[in-house]
């Protein structure tokens, strides 16, 4: 079985039924990537995150989870990637996420969103949180 692929999305969907699995979002930073999948059946989303790394020009599995969090990508500096994702309310097209001093807006795709912070130490306290959703052009507090 092939273990290295041309894209991180190809790595992420490996092992899932193609008719029930779709890529919601994908973020790449250098030789690291995060892909958010919806692996649920129609009408019942189930979000699943896949961390990938590029080795010798090909993408491979680094880790996966059904929950957001922190994943080490740099052993030497003990740094990693913080992922934060979730489902959005019906009609939402954007989400605003707060983490530390940062306010980040992300698009909602297929009813879900993904926000990523690269090269971060493992947070000791204070995880990202949703501040608001934009529904039909109006920001509504979460």
- Sheet with the most strands, sense and barrel status: 4 strands, antiparallel
The separation of the N and C termini measures: 44 Å
User: Order of strands across the biggest sheet?
Assistant: 1-2-3-4
Radius of gyration: 15 Å
**What low-confidence regions span 5 or more consecutive residues with pLDDT below 50?**
none
**Mean pLDDT level:** 94
Q: Please tell me what the overall shape is.
A: flat
Query: In oligomeric terms, what are we looking at?
Result: single chain
Please report the total strand number as a whole number. 11
Structure, described:
- With about 140 residues, the chain is mainly beta.
- The chain has a domain at about 10-90 and about 110-120.
- It is about 5% helix and about 55% strand.
- The protein is built from 1 helix and 11 strands, in the order H-E-E-E-E-E-E-E-E-E-E-E.
- It is flat.
């Amino acid at each position: 079985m092939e273990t290295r692929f041309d894209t991180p999305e190809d790595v992420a969907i490996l092992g899932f039924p193609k008719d029930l699995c779709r890529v919601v979002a994908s973020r790449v930073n250098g030789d690291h990537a995060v892909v958010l999948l919806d692996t649920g059946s129609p009408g019942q989303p189930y979000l699943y995150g896949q961390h990938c790394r590029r080795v010798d020009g090909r993408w491979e599995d680094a880790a996966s989870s059904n929950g957001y969090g922190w994943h080490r990508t740099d052993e030497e500096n003990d740094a990693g990637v913080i992922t934060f994702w979730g489902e959005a309310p019906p009609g939402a097209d954007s989400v605003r996420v707060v983490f530390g001093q940062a306010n980040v807006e992300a698009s909602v795709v297929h009813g879900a969103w993904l926000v990523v912070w690269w090269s971060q130490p493992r947070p000791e306290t204070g995880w990202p949180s949703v501040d608001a959703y934009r529904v039909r052009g109006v920001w509504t507090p979460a």
